[in-house]
């Protein structure tokens, strides 16, 4: 937004509309009171009630004597914006105060709804079709009441611009700058302690406090800025009990903490927060909903379903959210069962059908249809698929998200009916929509792949819905300091344009230079470091190490993920680099298999004329062809220089409930539990290097990740059978298991007169076990990557989140392990 009296004023329609309003506001400044509002997209029902009470009973009454006509300025986004408009409009009307509503739209209304729904999904909040339609109707009703709608976008701006997150973010910042500068009074409905996104409400408040922070191209002429701006903050973080008119809501505080944990991807923290609140006596159906979601997200789907069944939900049981949650749990259990049972798929279908019959949504209908097919009930599946198509034929699609889901749902229904050609056409129509939303596309692909497998159909039609590939990039030689994109080979240019997931083991200064150039062109980087960044820079021995470290730090901040390998000695550089390459390879294939994305190996060679492509190999279905991917990439075979050093699988386990055992039960515990575990380990022979137990703990060291995984799974299965055979305290015992794959020292314990393994990585692995939920197996990224090519078809690895380890060991990404 240029300076309102600058040379670009009136260049286009949106600027003309804004300029007309600002000039009119300048002329009527004596008679108008301009009042703006901003706030978060996501606010709970309790937070909305808190905000309304604070506005109506404390903040607005002192303003009731004003003689001016109010001008309400709002960006009209769902959440706090609409709450501000609705609350102030009602309050002003009740007091006979004249006002106008001025809607300033940074993007078309449908994209306001889309971005709200995206935020909900990022927070792991389910948005039913009814909820979305309600929010859309609320927005349309408020826009209909507006005296003037000022678009900040032009007639020439089309879907290509609106689908770009960068474009939308800039538009939101344009709106933020107007709200920060123009209104005489601004209401901010926010949680001040939370970080804010560019163009968000916290940035508005920050710019309003110090206008010098506003980018120069977004500043208004001083004549259009409030001379004495005032700001009133509605703090959503304060409990409702702070208001004399309303009671305290401790449940809402718990829910806010779970939302913050979910935003960081930490499902474990969500589980801990809700369980702690319930232990303290808090009982609320909202906590139960969060608990069930957290259990499912950490891989404890059966526990989640058991809790669901035990609840007395009352009227909530028939809401679309709860019915859909039941369907999701039954579906997850059905997909995980080995061998798969048609009865479990039928139960999932029944849950989705209940939601469909009550609420009439095509989402529930198509999921019910797919579950019926997987249950072996093709006739019912076909009928539901036909009903889904009938629903889609009469449903409008108000925004891009809805259009995507309608095309994807139509494709799924047509696939169920055996029309592969029409399915491909529907996916072709969906493909231009949400091009950067890999998560949605991945989920669609996974569901359709499952149906193709069940129907015995080719997956070729599914290629119409394109996902960027996961790329393992390797290079030979060093790139020149000046590197132009036009020099790059066509395969690399194409992969960058597709926003591929580029995985690279960053080992040399040349790797750093290449990554910098790739990022400049918009590539998404997933990096592995053989050692921590400062040590890597020292290893390079560059003329300006401080500058080199600054460049590396800046790059790592921009990467999507960074994995640092640990536990190696300085003299083990060759071995360390080889293991880092294996780690990068394993994680790239694991990511591709988990997301139904293709996997590609790209090798570049550098010379004075620039790069050339040595090899470009594609694996279309890495979940089924993991072995081929590893064979194409090849694993370096570098052995440690010392016989006392080796890579090993490390297991630490601990019994939950052990402290409650009475003395009379100890003999049975050692005879039945420890004795049974000993016999289990005996069956694994020489692959077990170390086996120890003390009290409630078990420690095992094995030759590799696959043997450690097998032992961990068998140990958990043994304990589950033991729990079913016993009651009382012995039946209450549950095992927490943690596994890691890392370099260790092998030696001899002169106290026990037994072989021993030791090193920092054993201490690290021991810190994982205390944070694993009872009955589960948690493994490190290193372990997951190694297991993905040692035993690619035997186990399922599910991301558990970034977890804070015990004894202040820091936060690390962990995976939940289970057998197929």
In short:
The protein is an alpha/beta fold. The protein has 30 helices and 20 strands.
- Percentage of residues in DSSP E strands: 15-25%
Structural class: alpha/beta
Q: In this structure, how is the largest beta sheet organized?
A: 8 strands, mixed
Tell me which oligomeric state these chains represent. single chain
C-alpha end-to-end distance: 56 Å
Number of domains: 4
Average pLDDT, to the nearest integer?
Answer: 83
Number of strands: 20
Q: What would you report as the Rg, rounded to the nearest angstrom?
A: 30 Å
User: What is the fold named in CATH at topology level of the largest domain?
Assistant: Rossmann fold
CATH secondary-structure class of the largest domain: Alpha Beta
Low-confidence stretches: 1-11, 239-248
- The number of distinct helices, counting runs of at least 4 residues, comes to 30
Estimate percent helicity. Answer: 40-55%
Shape: globular
Corresponding CATH architecture of the largest domain:
3-Layer(aba) Sandwich
Domain Guanylate cyclase: 649-769
GO molecular function: adenylate cyclase activity
Pfam families: Guanylate_cyc, TPR-S
Protein name: Adenylate cyclase, class 3
In words, what does this structure look like?
The chain is an alpha/beta fold. The protein folds into four domains: 229 residues, Rossmann fold; 214 residues, Serine Threonine Protein Phosphatase 5, Tetratricopeptide repeat (Alpha Horseshoe); 164 residues, Rossmann fold; 175 residues, Alpha-Beta Plaits. The chain contains 30 helices and 20 strands. Pfam families: Guanylate_cyc, TPR-S.
